[in-house]
Amino acid sequence: MHRYKNISGESGVVAYDIGRRSITVEFHSGERYLYTDESAGADNITEMQRLATLGSGLSTYISQIVRERYAQKLN
Description:
Elements: E1 2-3, E2 13-18, E3 22-27, E4 32-36, H1 37-40, H2 42-54, H3 58-66, E5 72-73
Helix pairs in contact: 2-3
């Protein structure tokens, strides 16, 4: 997992891992979720990967756009 930069200092995201067609996101609560092309849509995964790398906007994007369309809760 890569530490999320959290440029705003207010994100609920702490870490992420980018796969070929997926992203795993870890939140402050310790919960980790796997999002895939199939569960959230390829365009959404691409945007989530971009935001994760940027270190800004990922938590907001998940809460407003992707919501609960994860493939698996990993904890």
